TrEMBL record:
This is Sporulation histidine kinase inhibitor Sda. Keywords: Protein kinase inhibitor. It holds the Pfam family Sda. InterPro entries: Sda, Sda_sf. SUPFAM superfamilies: Sporulation inhibitor Sda (SSF100985). The keyword Signal does not apply. It comes from the Bacteria. One of its GO terms (molecular function) is protein kinase inhibitor activity.
Length: 64
């Protein structure tokens, strides 16, 4: 049986403090894996916020 989508716990302040430590590539990989694994929307929001802060673009947002 799969755990429910909201069964994972994370400390938002800890995540916010650690995001700047990730390389750009690891941050993008974390975001894509979080989407693929259907993690909590709030966690996805934190990742996407850091991506925007760094002015990175997600592959689907990159111009061709």
């Amino acid at each position: 049986m799969m755990p429910s989508r909201t069964s994972y716990y994370y400390d938002e302040e800890r995540v916010k403090a650690m995001l700047p430590l990730l390389s750009d590539d690891l941050l993008l990989d974390a975001y894509h894996n979080a989407v693929r694994l259907r993690l909590e929307l709030e966690f996805l929001r934190l990742l996407k916020s850091e991506i925007r802060r760094r002015r990175l673009s997600l592959p689907e947002e990159r111009p061709i």
